[in-house]
Design brief:
This protein is an alpha/beta fold. The protein contains 24 helices and 14 strands. About 40% of the residues are buried. This is Helix-hairpin-helix domain-containing protein.
């Protein structure tokens, strides 16, 4: 065994000792030994115990640990430390900018146990609440995590949207008169992007290559037949396909849909489509209505296209209000009034649903019963003050382990609506997670089921649930399901939207905003809702103020 792996193991041991507040002198001696071993000009593998003890900075105790490691490949003390530390917490110690002391605060005070939860907390501005953290540190940690997330070649749609559009602007400048469009995952509005594909109706490939080779946006540019390939500054792969104008729409169609979607459409065409004049022509020849790119995942919407029953997909202008938002009363950055004015004056919405955290969310300054009543007084005063706008009294009530909500009935009935969400004890099997959610859904005060699986994209899988049972329970109890619009969540997954809609379950595009900038996340909620085939008639926050007021009253009644 080389010295470096041994030094790394000792360094990890010292970090875990510091995390668990072991003897400071012992921590320092192990860390110092790790440093010394890393710098030794000779290998220590094969040396006897007495030889190890004589090495400067090692000593008898650490020599014994090193000998144990050389002999067995591990250390009992290290394994003991690892056994009482969540794997995600160990992973967090590898993030640039935070050492064991900060990780201990993040874990023990904020209840964060992995990198995904930490990234989400940075986006929610929660880190600055902890001792020793400021805005600068929080931003540095967020950027370091983004860099780590990007290293696996997968990106959130929200992470690449700006750069992709800038690349398209360059392509438009190079080919002002050519046909050009995004294809692939980006055009289908996938929540996870592994490659940006652009199809250009021009065979003047050399012009494109020479221009893009000197681009400030694209790196490592190369040519491969009619493809120009490279990557964005963040490492995302790019494939630009140059084809003859006559073949453009066929290639755009082929490069946009998933393979099984494209094949399903072509299988319905009796005569070959050589050079279609539009994508619409391809669908027409297949006996189908034209399908929006975001619906071209597999064959889910093929039958609806055949019957000309495709939904008119929801858009930003359909939204009349925003539900599930947090203010300075819990872990938000802006006051209720600031959020209301932004929604009314900038977003031109009709209503705002406040849903600060409930009392169980101590880490997020969850509201005690007394503070709930105080907040309601403030909302009443604001509603008298604000013209042409209404603030609804909501709460994001924690679903406890037994499925109950964390306020007594006399408090629950004081809210206009309730978003019920799981925030704690996320390690559950499917049976437990499903029954926990269904119990909450059956609570007569639950209006909306919040982020149903608790997933954090690219960092934490959601707890397993039986989707059909949960959705069926929502249908039976007239409970709306949230599409949490935070780009890290996008939960309920779009793959289950149609099942919910077919069961008569309404969805709600909720930003889960913790600051006024967070309202813009509804953009990503709309994109993923369109993938799932959502239309305004089945979106709760597409209701007008009178309609949603009536709906809330009916649910409470």
């Amino acid at each position: 065994m080389e010295n470096k792996p041994i030094a790394r193991t000792l360094r990890l041991l010292s970090q875990l000792m510091e995390l668990h507040e072991a003897n400071p002198f012992k921590i320092k001696s192990v860390a110092n030994a790790a440093f010394k071993l890393d710098k030794l000009p000779f290998p220590i593998a094969g040396k006897k115990l007495d030889e190890l003890e004589k090495i400067d900075g090692i000593g008898k105790s650490i020599a014994g640990k090193v000998a144990e490691l050389l002999k067995t490949g591990t250390m009992a003390e290290l394994q003991e430390m690892l056994d009482k530390t969540p794997a995600g917490v160990v992973e967090m110690m590898g993030i640039k900018g935070i050492g064991p002391k900060k990780v201990a605060i993040i874990w023990k005070e904020l209840g964060i146990e992995n990198t995904g939860e930490l990234f989400y907390a940075c986006n929610e501005n929660r880190l600055i609440e902890a001792k020793g953290f400021g805005l600068k540190t929080q931003e540095e940690i967020r950027k370091a995590i983004e860099f780590r997330m990007a290293s696996n070649g997968k990106f959130l749609f929200a992470q690449v949207e700006k750069e992709a559009n800038e690349l398209m602007d360059e392509v438009k400048a190079i080919f002002p008169d050519a046909l050009k469009h995004f294809a692939g995952e980006f055009r289908r509005l996938n929540e996870i992007i592994t490659e940006i594909v652009i199809v250009i109706g021009s065979l003047n490939q050399d012009v494109a290559y020479n221009a893009l080779a000197n681009s400030k946006i694209l790196c490592n540019v190369s040519k491969n037949k009619n493809h120009i390939q490279g990557e964005l500054q963040n490492g995302l792969l790019v494939d630009i396909v140059c084809v003859d104008k006559a073949d453009y729409y066929r290639e755009l169609f082929i490069n946009t849909g998933t393979d099984d979607h494209v094949q399903a459409v072509f299988d319905r065409i009796n005569t070959p489509v050589e050079q279609p004049e539009s994508e619409e022509m391809i669908y027409t020849k297949a006996g189908l209505a034209w399908m929006q790119p975001e619906l071209r995942e597999g064959t889910l919407f093929i039958e609806k296209a055949e019957k000309n029953e495709l939904p008119t997909l929801i858009n930003w202008h359909d939204l009349k209000g925003t539900l599930h938002n947090h203010s300075t009363w819990s872990d938000g950055v802006n006051s209720i009034e600031e959020m209301a004015l932004y929604c009314r004056d900038t977003l031109k919405l009709e209503y705002l649903g406040m849903c600060d955290h409930s009392k169980s969310a101590f880490y997020a300054k969850g509201l005690s019963i007394e503070r709930v009543l105080q907040q309601h007084e403030e909302i009443d005063a604001l509603n008298k003050k604000l013209d042409g706008f209404h603030i609804f009294k909501g709460i994001e009530s924690d679903i406890l382990y037994d499925g109950s909500l964390d306020y007594p009935e006399e408090i629950l009935k004081k809210f206009d609506f309730i978003v019920a969400s799981v925030h704690s004890i996320l390690k559950m099997d499917e049976e437990k997670a499903t029954s926990r959610l269904i119990t909450a859904i059956e609570n007569p005060y639950t209006t909306i089921l919040g982020h149903p699986t608790g997933r954090l994209l690219l960092s934490r899988g959601g707890y397993p649930i039986n989707y059909k049972k949960v959705i069926d329970a929502c249908a039976a109890n007239k409970v709306v399901i949230e599409i949490n619009a935070n780009p890290l969540r996008l939960d309920l997954d779009w793959r289950w939207h149609q099942y919910a809609l077919d069961k008569g379950v309404m969805l709600s595009i909720n930003p889960d905003a913790h600051r006024i900038e967070g309202f813009t996340d509804m953009h990503y909620g709309i994109l993923v809702a369109r993938k799932g085939g959502l239309y305004k008639e089945m979106c709760m926050n597409a209701m007008s103020l009178p309609e949603i007021t009536k709906a809330f009253a009916k649910k409470r009644g």
